[in-house]
Specification:
The structure is a homodimer.
Chain A (H helix, E strand, L loop, with lengths): L1 E8 L2 E10 L4 E9 L1 H4 L4 E7 L7 H6 L2 H8 L2 E5 L37 H16 L2 E10 L1 H12 L6 E5 L9 H11 L11 H6 L7 E6 L5 H5 L1 H11 L3 E6 L6 H18 L3
Parallel strand pairs in A: 4-5, 4-6, 6-7, 7-8, 8-9
Antiparallel strand pairs in A: 1-2, 2-3, 3-5
Helix pairs in contact in A: 3-10
Amino acid sequence: MERVEQHACAGGRQEVWKHRSDVLNCEMKFGIFLPEVATRGEPCPVLYWLSGLTCTEQNFITKAGAQAHAAKHGVIVVAPDTSPRGDEVADDPAYDLGQGAGFYVNATQAPWSAHYRMQDYVAHELPELVERHFAANGQRGIMGHSMGGHGALITALRHPGRYASVSAFSPIVAPSQVPWGAKALTAYLGEDRQSWTAWDTVELIKQASESLPLLVDQGGADEFLSTQLRPELLEQACQTTGHPLTLRRQPGYDHSYYFIATFLADHFAHHAQALGR
Amino acid sequence: MERVEQHACAGGRQEVWKHRSDVLNCEMKFGIFLPEVATRGEPCPVLYWLSGLTCTEQNFITKAGAQAHAAKHGVIVVAPDTSPRGDEVADDPAYDLGQGAGFYVNATQAPWSAHYRMQDYVAHELPELVERHFAANGQRGIMGHSMGGHGALITALRHPGRYASVSAFSPIVAPSQVPWGAKALTAYLGEDRQSWTAWDTVELIKQASESLPLLVDQGGADEFLSTQLRPELLEQACQTTGHPLTLRRQPGYDHSYYFIATFLADHFAHHAQALGR
């Protein structure tokens, strides 16, 4: 582990670390914000943020204004990269496949399966690393945007009891049924659609063993709303199974960080309550 | 004038416009945040933000979290680019001269004098444009960072009565006495150092005809503190002349937007009070 950035921010510290990931078999970076209490060694809950297509660990830490909220609630925030990286890692010229587009799954198909195990990274290796090296109290929440909203929802649903809270901005809720998702799942998991159901929020909701409440914000002017995001599919699945969902449609808002920054305080409040802050 | 970006944000709208500048003789872009009251046509004060070396109109609007503060106070925020732009505009391979480094002066030396009249642009042409096209009430404040902190201070000091308030983050307070400033002023204004005094905050303070209070935040871990910024020169000039200055040294903070985002709420409060918000 090597610290590659360190900035005083909001009374605490925004840092970026790089480390060798065993799961992904490459070097990875993640951003971590430590509120002032954590810099003094007081154990704090950790809130994970998963970013969307094309993003790195930088987008959320520079654009969302998250540090002020994290400082207010005394929460550590960890923002990993969105895929394995490096010259030896398989890639694709398209923005929606390969590096920058890991989709938070464990790939089973060549050439992706050699590195693309982002689910194991975000759900296991990264939390273990964070809890070993920083003042974490073992409580966890998870949230994300777009592909990362999908990542947050499936990661929480696939690991009952592991996260105290989950939320998403403009998530891809049914990757099996939309172009971005079908393309990525075909590449990473193969043609057998049955294997996709373990990575699809709408499918996972149908078999959920715990009723972790979902908070989802969706912009009404989002350019991907009706083609890639389709929040009505999540709404229907939650209605059918009685899964608790707060879906807020925000008229006029698009898919950008201007949308995320506007409503992020509400997401922090949602997580902080569940995390005892 | 053409709107090239529009995003709902913080209950209002973040927009980017491009227009032909007569003063700069090129096409320019600026960001403008309109709080909800301004989108309904209610006249609001306008707060100008001047960015630092290498920046465009994008840095402040995407990284500072300013929109939430502007929405709270009902203030329009305008963030111009930092220099004239385009293939026909003189440039230099260095990051601290030419495009991205206009230093908010009116150049008198070839080849710069053909386009580099950033002072006339930010103090006259841009405000006139903004006040003609948006719901502005004629009240103005100005602030900025680094080269833009210098820009905000000299622009307010050169135009007594034009700005109700001024503030700066990590400003270059004495360009005549530091490497960044001496290089730029030599190129844009020539070797005669007497001509530089009209563009140097420490020199302008000595002849100020009004006592506009200055709010300045300076990070203690800023990598440019002792070589380029030298806030003690401003402190001495204000002490000598009795000019009101609040200089806040913030231990541990660097030159980045993490510093700006941390203390920006205080700057908005400073301006809002003077602007009657």
